[in-house]
Design brief:
By secondary structure, the protein is an alpha/beta fold. About 40% of the residues lie in helices and about 15% in strands. The strands form 5 sheets. Strands 5-13-12-11-10-6-7 form a 7-stranded mixed β-sheet, with helices on both faces. Strands 14-15-18-17 form a 4-stranded antiparallel β-sheet.
Length: about 450
Amino acid sequence: MAAQQAIWIPDIRPFSHLPTYLALVEAIAAAIRCGELKAGDRLPPQRRLAWAMDLNPSTTLQAYREASRRHLISGEVGRGTYVLADSQEASLFRLRTATVAATELIDLTTNVPILPLEGHDMRDTLHHLADDADAHSGWVNYLTDADALQGELLCAQWMREVRQMEVPPDQFMLCPGAQKGLLAVLMSFCHGGDPVLVEALTAPGIRSGCRQLRLPLHDIRMDSEGILPEELDRMARSTGARVALLTPILQNPTGTTMTVQRQHAIAEVVAHHDLLVIEDDVYGGLSDVPPLTRLLGHRGILVSSLSKTVAPGLRFGFIHAQPERLAQIDPDTQLTRWGMSPLMLGVARHWIEHGIAQHHLRHQRQATAQRWQLAQRLLGHAMLMGTQPSPHIWAHNVGHLPQLAQACETRGVKVTPENVFAIHPHTEQAVRISLSAAPDMETLEKALRLIAPLFAPPTGS
């Protein structure tokens, strides 16, 4: 970075088609990608950059917030704003600009629900809520205790119908999405420097959340059923970790799902070491396998939402745990339900009570199975780990082709490389392919056929 008297000023002209704050974010991302900004570089203070670029300070404030949300930068009071070390993760969340669209790339990098064929549910629901005169003023107010109780009843209904678990309403705490819930739990049970056990390949959201809380991650080796019990035992002994953050069902990125037998083996190790297991169950509704948490008692905390199974925009998430654990997590509900929107809660309530959410879930399951079977047919020889229909697959670099993700992009398909998920630097041997990201089956088949030759074994092997 330049000295203070010559601050770095981004060039936002290539992104002039975007709102100014987003243009500034894209300029930061572009500077990181080309090496103009490097990991650890300090960005100019927001007000000083605004003055240098003749912008309103609120514009640079909004841009820095968005860049932080997309894991490009991180700001600390008293220290400034710095480029994050692993900004490659931000590629998962970048806006789809006109420049990207013009390349006609098929983007299979982001795990999103498959859109239903019909698109009237939200419109009809908003009309219904607008006509509810008794509740109308509540949609623009803070969440009340009565709203929260309704939400907890919805969580109990969802877990009963979707996850086959009978859970009392007082064992739920609302939150605006699973990521917020995971952060709230980690903040409550971990202190900076505490080791956290995770799968050897771990979702970017988990990695970035733990990094920002300064929680060092220790990876547990996996097979096709998830983490190995003996490896969990070994890592618990060697690290002294008291907390494990796991995704037992349709794990991201590998797609692995623990069998019931493996879950019981893991539960024994958890009890032996008195570990606290935080279960990320956002994909659980797509599977018939019940959550690991049911075997853990007070040692288990489940976090889930409707984001991966129904619609991410609902921002309806929840934490399930024993009441005494919930009291430890957020006794004043400042980290969790305070951020819930009554309007989104109203939509979620209408969808769950009228079976709309369940209908979307059934569609997700059917469409996921179809796409996964297509991937099995075209890339089955290269698929690792997962044995159940999953919205994403982990494809092995059979031919040991260097820069596999880059080779896929050269053929017109964007996928996510292994280093985005690996706790330690890896030689690229696999990529995640998000089957649900394609807008339809035809586009997905086209994409998989384009990259299939890259996964073929070398001639003569």
